[in-house]
Amino acid sequence: MPFTLSRRQSVAWLGAAPAILPALAHGQGILPDKPLRIVVGFAAGGGTDLMARLIAAQLQRRISQRIVVENKPGATGATAGEILKNGPSDGSLIALMPSTTLAARVVTPGFPFDPLIDITPITEVGTFQGAFAVSPTTPAQTVAEYIDWVKGDPQQRGKVGTTAADLTLDFYIRLFSREFGVKLTGVPFRGAGSLIHDMSEGLIPAGFAGVPSFLAAYRGKQIRILAISGHNRLAVAPNIPVVRDVGHPELEIVEWYGFFSAPMVPARVILEWNRVLVTTIQSSDVSEQLAQFGLEVQTSTPEETVALIATHLKRWHDLVTSLGGTPAN
Fold first, then answer.
1. Is the C or the N end of the chain the one with fewer CB within 10 Å?
2. Which Pfam families match (predicted)?
């Protein structure tokens, strides 16, 4: 797939190409000489926010520029992409977004930005799994026991909390309902913190979120994770089974995080962001800490990230159709 930083950038890209190599060699004066901002479309304290702050702190130390993390929570985390769409073209603003936010365009009428046009990909950060968890007050110790328990009173026991009023998460709940053979109902919360609180207090019997949002609460015994959605178990939590282990390989889904910038940022600035971010993310001190969130570090070029977005949107289009839905975009 040819690299177009956005469909409106191809001319700028070609014009900038001769200057790229010497600029990267020196690595000075390419990023704007002002405080840099990382936008997160979720509340403070969740997995996305904590990873953004970890990366920002290490990056600030490496490039000797102030970096501020800003939380702009909203449904599906799309506020971050909308801010980029209308953001400055100097490259001073970037966002950390999960692929579920990008996929929300497939299922959300009037979604505020097009991932293939309105933002510029910088790099993938890593892949993560979803986690299906229950309250410690819920008697089920396994997925099979949970299914049997829900069947006793689907209306009350079938409530599953999600970390946002997010239609992509709603489709996950539909997928679980189909595979478990029980009626589950999604209950949106305003972020992972409030969901974990209510699960720990027994106010809602189950919840679904990305592993980065749930892993600390699992370690603290605030919740009990019954299964995660990847192919392999997590090295940092090897006792948690994957969906294949519990007899539901159809639920195997892996999502990812990426960094993005505004649509008209010059190509050489995007490449410098890619360079400094990849170097920071792949450093042992950062990658080891990201692994503790359940993130499998995996970086990419801007071109590779463009292709990753296109593939991801098609996969979600197919998933929505298979569940009887009609893609919104």
1. N
2. TctC
Q: What are phi and psi of 149, to 5 degrees?
A: -65, -45
CA distance 187 to 264: 38
- Per DSSP, the residues of 201-228 read TTSSSEEEEEHHHHHHHHHTTSSEEEEE
**Cα-Cα-Cα-Cα dihedral sign, residues 272, 264, 36, 123:** negative
Residue 171 has pLDDT above 50, yes or no: yes
What the chain holds in terms of domains, given with CATH numbers, is 10-127+255-322 (3.40.190.150), 129-251 (3.40.190.10)
Confidence category of residue 160, pLDDT binned at 50, 70, 90: very high
Q: Which residue type is seen at 323?
A: L
Q: Which residue from 108, 102, 71, 59 is spatially nearest to 192, judged by alpha carbons? A: 71
Alpha-helical regions (H) of 4-120:
10-26, 47-63, 79-85, 99-107
Q: List Cα–Cα distances, 231 to 155, 209, 241, 242, 253, in angstroms.
A: 31, 17, 10, 7, 8
Give the torsion sign (CA, 274, 296, 312, 79): negative
